[in-house]
Amino acid sequence: MKQSKLVLATGISMLACIASAAPTYAAPAASTAVQGIILRSDKDGNSELYSIDPATHASVRLTNNLAEDMDGSWSPDGGFVVFSSNRGDGRHFQLYTLNYATKAVTQLTTVPNANFVTPVWSPDGSTIAFVSQYDSDATSGISTMHSDGTGIKEVTRSKTFQLQYPAWSPDGSNLLTIGFGGGSAPDVYRLTLTTGKLQLLAHNGFPAVYSPDGTQIAFSRRDTNFVQQVVLMKADGTQQQQMTHDPQVSRWVADWSPDGKQLLLNELVGNPANDNVQDIGVRTLSLESSVETNIATNATLPGFTYFSSEGSWR
Hints:
The chain is mostly beta strands. The chain has one domain (about 35-314): TolB, C-terminal domain (Neuraminidase). It contains no helices and 24 strands. It has strands at about 35-40, 50, 60, 70-75, 80-85, 95-100, 105, 115-120, 125-135, 140-145, 155, 160-170, 175-180, 185-190, 200, 210, 215-220, 230-235, 240, 250-255, 260-270, 275-285, 290-295, 310-314. It is globular and about 45 Å long. The chain starts with about 35 loop residues before the first strand and ends with a strand. Mean pLDDT is about 85; it is low at about 1-35.
């Protein structure tokens, strides 16, 4: 079975050559919200984005390109999706938006020798945060830009580890991010946007996302058997509580449901440490009952050979 892969690149210097025809995002007066989860799969031959109804499992293909499209994230009103793709030169990943109604795609960034990945929209829709990596540097940083692709600004970059997986706080004042490097397990940090300062919240965890009310953080932690388990903690990093204990199923947190009652999880059945991978899928976990519900597997969506929920649920 083909597994999804995280695309990591390297880089430095900020040469911002931005596409001039990018549309400015503005939330409509009446919400056009689409209830769904963004998935990435190679069902149609290469990495494409799909939206899926969590209740009916009905799927809609969002992108259609021979390149690799990934990292989809809803705009706050559900009218647009921001994503990364190497459809430019086939090697470097830039950022694009997709109009959900028309499926029209607009390129936001055209920065030479750079990889921009895992974009996420701010709660007010004005800003997009993303991972910035450059060919001339082995580290990665967290950058932001206006939702029309202008005003690229690097918020922070570590000299000792890679920064990945930005996730907004509900009030838009900070981001969660994951620090990889130095041969140690990844750690969860809070990044304050006004200062660029990183605050360590939890060891051995990735990815991490805020609850809709901002009081909790959910993340995944590798146990002693190399299986990823779901952990909840308070927003300040205290009162960490493990929520799952299955020794054969790894779970990576992708997002919270809009009502805060469920978590969206990428799951892997088996133990990758022993090269024993039996299945890959996407599930929801009820925080009230601990019941898990399949959203996407080879059984529910025939023809899909791998899944990666892109961390966006509306």
